[in-house]
Design a protein that fits this description.
The chain has 238 residues and is α/β, with parallel strands linked by helices. The protein has one domain: 3-Layer(aba) Sandwich (Uracil-DNA Glycosylase, subunit E), CATH 3.40.470. It has 9 helices and 6 strands. Strands 1-3-2-4-6-5 form a 6-stranded mixed sheet, sandwiched between helices. A hairpin with a 2-residue loop joins strand 5 and strand 6.
Length: 238
Amino acid sequence: MTLEYLNTTLLSCRRCPRLVAWREQVAREKRRAYRDWEYWGKPVPGFGDPQARVMAVGLAPGAHGSNRTGRMFTGDASGDFLYPALCRVGFANQPTSHSREDSLILKDLYITAVCRCAPPGNKPSPQEMENCQPYLAREIEAIRPRIVVALGRVAFDRVLRIIYDGQPSIANRPSPAPSAVEGSVVFAHGAAYQLITDHWLLCSYHPSRQNTQTGRLTTEMFDAVWRKVRELLDQTPC
């Protein structure tokens, strides 16, 4: 399945009635600061370099961020924290992203999320995440990244489920992980796990406003994760 076909299919998805109702309500009512915007109000596709060796996985679009702009991590505080970090390490050509029409280009990186529709309170239900999981699985299958960066525990858990529960693995083949079963693969900021030869899963706290403004996730902590990604890429063949 090509990314183009996958994203075309995604845009017509209405599997989760609660999320469909919420994303469309937000798009109609808008926030006063964005009253002149035409909100996206649909599922938000992943984007970036289709030949990327790195994939970043977040949780879900923000109601007035990605649900407004149609681009992951664009137009809200999470993106204001993420894109400068990506720019500093060379994965993005600029430190800001305000709309789908701006000049942002991702290099060797693809950004996606567990859920593609904005959830009320930023909290998708387990069933809603289950409904959306095939889209993420197919993206992993199509891109076959060498490194996945899980932005938050939910993304970490979902990526592990895709890789180890019979769905397409990063290398497009089954990859049993006894260590995961034994519980040694656990989410912790900065942790890095080798899944199969030359394929890695890295963990970071999500760059949400709640984490960054409280100091749970600092610029230095976030930069360290992306520097580790660069180091791992330098150690593996192209």
